[in-house]
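S1.2 Input.
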Amino acid sequence: MDNECSKAVQEYITSEEIAIQLVEPKDHRVNAAERAIQTFKHHFVAGLATVDIDFPIQLWDEFLLQAQMTLNFMRTSRLDPNKTSYEELEGAFDFNKTPLAPLGTKALLLEDPDARASWAPHGTDAFYVGPAMRHYFLLQKQEVFACLGHTRSIPHTANNRQCHKQI
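S1.3 Output.
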């Protein structure tokens, strides 16, 4: 507990015979709640750093579900070290039913051919903001959604002859 605890709260905790341990003010490394907030903040900011350059940043709050999920995928449960925190809270996650993509990825939302004009564009520009938890994986079979990756240059690798010479 932080040193800034009121006398009334301290008296109540003592009357209920609850163990209390105060930490130095502004020492965020010792306080477990402060450390958890800092971990989530760093995880979330790292996710924001990977969004597409054209992503409307005012939609950042749509990322919260996937950010919480992915953080809990990486943490082990305190109750059962053989499970992730997500599995302990929500049950097993099936990546085949609910795929995850990098947040803020530019995407193309394909229009149903019956709902568009003959010469109209076949899709609408969109961005991936998180998983659709209540829907089964529709991406490949129904051709509803296609992600567009950025063009990246692939680092040039040495050919086999140069590698064999150095060995």
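S1.4 Remarks. The chain has two domains: 1-28, 31-166.
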